[in-house]
Specification:
D-Maltodextrin-Binding Protein, domain 2; 295 residues; 6-stranded mixed beta sheet; 3-stranded parallel beta sheet; globular; disordered N terminus; alpha/beta
């Protein structure tokens, strides 16, 4: 109230208050009004967010289900309808900005550049950007990519790190783009690409569920370490606060460790094979100090 009183004599201040009111977003109010929450997910980012027999599942989906449970409690809507919509790296942010999604639960890097367009929750995973190759390949490091065909998925931030590394190492590569992670992996599997650069979790998950995991390996230097978080509409402090509370509690309660064991260290659908990827150093640091910091 004191802020409003102080602003009464200032046209500039009143204009500022008006702008804040105009651009504020209240997704929880929209959810309460419609009785529905719409969650974006990925189709081939196993074990974090993927689809088996039409059903979204994975590490991020379980985390977001806990967020949904908190929304039901907060809004007193035990019968809240949950709708899932598949997204790609190129359409996920536009879908959030247009209001088509209320949350996106995939493998979305919290980049500070993206803060202009969307909100991010407390981080739930730290991905290492590396590359997958055929086991028979002689590619062991970034320098071995010279004059090779390299694929990344269109719209993912790993492509930025690959381009930066190529410039720094003065390499000449033949660049390919997959429509989604499954398409990128298919280019590697069919020999149309010599290497697939992406997040360690995605690469490991695609290898584990490929049906022929013994045919592939993850190699090379870590090009970047990226925080993954739930993406939400921008300028919506209420939904962000709720999501932050849920994710932080998952870390502090130890439930996040249980989810990690379920999706990264145990057999997962559809082939009942384990990704077998131990918690990396960056994730151990995140577990000790949960944060919503981007990179």
């Amino acid at each position: 109230m004191s802020l409003i009183k102080a602003c009464l004599s200032s046209a500039v201040c009143l204009l500022s208050l008006s702008a804040t009111s105009t651009f504020a977003v209240d997704t929880l109010a929209k959810i309460q009004r419609t009785g529905t929450i719409v969650i974006g997910h990925r189709t081939s980012s196993q074990p974090i967010s993927y689809v088996v027999n039409g059903r979204p599942m994975g590490y991020a989906i379980d985390i977001c289900n806990d967020v949904v449970a908190e929304v039901k409690k907060e809004l007193h809507l035990p019968n809240l309808r949950v709708v899932y919509k598949a997204t790609t790296p190129t359409d996920r942010i536009p879908m959030l900005k247009s209001g088509e999604l209320d949350m996106e639960c995939g493998t979305s890097t919290h980049s500070v550049v993206r803060n202009n367009d969307v909100n991010f929750s407390t981080n739930y995973y730290m991905a290492e950007i590396r590359m997958a190759v055929k086991r028979s390949s002689d590619i062991k490091s970034v320098d071995d990519l010279d004059n090779r065909k390299v694929v990344t998925t269109a719209g993912v931030i790993a492509d930025k790190y690959l381009k930066r590394t190529v410039r720094g190492h003065d390499l000449n590569i033949h660049k390919l783009y997959g429509r989604d992670h499954a398409d990128s992996f298919s280019l590697l599997a069919t020999g149309k690409a010599d290497a697939f650069v992406g997040a360690d979790s995605t690469l490991a998950g695609l290898i584990a569920t490929s049906g022929h995991p013994q045919d592939y390996k993850i190699v090379g230097e870590v090009l970047s370490t990226d925080p993954y978080a739930i993406m939400m509409p921008n300028n919506d402090p209420k939904l962000k606060a709720l999501a932050d509370r849920v994710v932080t509690n998952l870390w502090r309660s130890g439930k996040m460790d249980q989810l990690y064991k379920k999706w990264f260290l145990s057999p997962i659908p559809p082939h009942n094979l384990a990704v077998n990827m131990e918690l990396n150093k960056a994730n151990k640091q995140l577990r000790a100090r949960p944060t919503d910091a981007g990179n």
